[in-house]
Amino acid sequence: MAPSASKEDHSAMYPVELPSWFIRLLTKENDIVLDPFLGAGTTAVAATLHRRNYVGIELKKEYYEESLKNINEIKNIMQKKAEHKIKNSES
Ligand SMILES: C[S@@+](CC[C@H](N)C(=O)[O-])C[C@H]1O[C@@H](n2cnc3c(N)ncnc32)[C@H](O)[C@@H]1O
Predict the structure, then answer these.
(1) Which of ligand 1's atoms lies nearest the C-alpha of 40?
(2) pTM above the 0.85 mark?
(3) How far apart are alpha carbons 23 and 19 in whole angstroms?
(4) Residue among 37, 49, 60, 73 to mutate when testing ligand 1 (max atoms within 8 A of CB)
(5) Which CATH code of 3.30.230.10, 3.30.1120.10, 3.40.50.150, 3.40.50.720 fits the domain covering 17-90?
(6) Average pLDDT over residues 15-41
(7) Roughly how many angstroms between the first and final C-alpha of the chain, as a whole number?
(8) Which DSSP state fits 22?
(9) d(CA 39, ligand 1 centre) in Å
(10) Which of left, alpha, beta for 30 (phi over 0: left; psi -120 to 50: alpha)?
(11) Is 19 or 2 the better-scoring residue by pLDDT?
(12) Any atom of ligand 1 within 6 Å of the Cβ of 16
């Protein structure tokens, strides 16, 4: 899988498909996924996507903040999709 980093991203960011594959293989919904080297939060994003909980550890504040941004982005997308689904089921 190709790296997913753009110029602004964490320099060693991996594609979300990579942790997704392991998370789906090794865990169940609501399990906890630990990434002790969180970086831009790709593992936490994948965990969120697959409805797992996560714990992340990151040394650098700027990467921690980038991870929060990425996690919130995916949570917002999932929230909007869920609202859209409810709206469509009501009409
Ligand atoms: C290869 S990057 C992880 C990238 C991540 N997989 C992603 O997709 O964004 C490793 C990260 O571990 C962090 N790190 C290195 N040593 C650490 C330590 N002792 N405790 C916590 N984080 C550490 C670095 O700051 C770096 O962001």
Answers:
(1) 9
(2) yes
(3) 6
(4) 37
(5) 3.40.50.150
(6) 97
(7) 40
(8) H
(9) 5
(10) left
(11) 19
(12) no
42 lines ligand 1 (CB under 6 A): yes
Instruction: Name the residue with tokens 């991870």.
Output: 67
| CA nearest to 56, candidates 83, 79, 36, 42 | 36
Question: Domains of the chain: which residue ranges?
Answer: 17-90
Q: What are φ and ψ of residue 70, in 5° steps?
A: -65, -40
Q: At 5, is the pLDDT very low, low, confident or very high (cuts 50, 70, 90)? A: low
Q: Which residue in the block uniquely carries the two structure tokens 């899988």?
A: 1
Whether 67 and 40 have beta carbons less than 8 Å apart is answered as: yes
Report how far ligand 1's centroid is from the alpha carbon of 29 (Å): 25
Q: Is the CB of 52 under 6 A from ligand 1?
A: no
Q: What is the mean pLDDT of residues 21-27?
A: 98
Provide the token pair at 66. Answer: 């980038």
